[in-house]
Amino acid sequence: MISKAARLILNAQFLRFAGVGAGMAGLNAAVLFALVSVLQLHYLTACAIAFIALTALSAVLNKRLAFLLDDRIRWSELARFFAVSGVSLAFNLLFMSVLVGGFGLHPLIASLAITLPFGLFNYLGHAVFTFGASDHLSDRAWDGGRIGESR
Hints:
mainly alpha; single chain; GtrA_DPMS_TM; GtrA family protein; transmembrane; transmembrane helix; 151 residues; 5 helices; GtrA_CellWall_Glycosyl
């Protein structure tokens, strides 16, 4: 018998999630380049701006493209998406610190080493906690309606 976690990973939804993630990684690199090289912001400031903006975009894209749900984003979903992403970021920084600072790995090698486990963590967190949790009918969507609709 296959566990719920294994069933979630072994379907097309995970591949769509990975595709959105790959696109977001490329966009993150472009945003960081623009903020640091063009606008000459400090790299940590640039990382914070990119994390906030791109995590919000990732929530919208993953809900619609990876999980094939309606495009109405609820505040509770956005909060859960940021919670999962924030936990992932904290553990990512911890593991990077251990692998680079403690074991002396090159940062790119360390980053590649943790990509798959963190991708799986993020997918399972969003599949079960972010978009798998039930929302109350009273929960308001962004702009009081569907994304992209004008008021």
